[in-house]
Amino acid sequence: MTTTATHLTATDTTRPAWLTQLLHTTDDVAPTVARLTLGLIMLPHGLQKTLGWFGGYGYAGTMGFFTETMGIPALFAFLAFLAIVAESLGALALITGVLTRVAAAGIGIVMLVAALTAHLPNGLFMNWSGTQAGEGFEYHLLAIGLALVALIKGGGRASIDGVLNK
What we know:
Blueprint: H1 17-23, H2 30-51, H3 58-69, H4 77-96, H5 100-119, H6 138-153, H7 160-164
């Protein structure tokens, strides 16, 4: 009696096509740089919101800020929770390159919503000199661009997605 390997490869017909497409990536360096840059920049923001690190409010304080200060209705509090998850777990997923496209989509959506709802009235530029009422949306635009690279190209070199899809 012979045994066969039980691991799945990209050419296995037992793996759903959508999963193969989701994990597909190349060995290119550019998506790796985009993925790591976005993940490393977003992680401290996520840790501010989840654990209160880096001067953040922690989970309860952040949810309170979203629902009370920003006026997000309780009905949409779940969306605020998803934003916190995207910035924290999504950042970790990008750094490791696991489910890169899902993480990039989540972070990209969070950045788009933040830019449109909170930062657009302040213009493009960040408030480097402290002379305007709030921060502009240039940071969000850069994050969206990096997220689009990861969404389109996948995790790139040294990603768990790439290992799983071999």
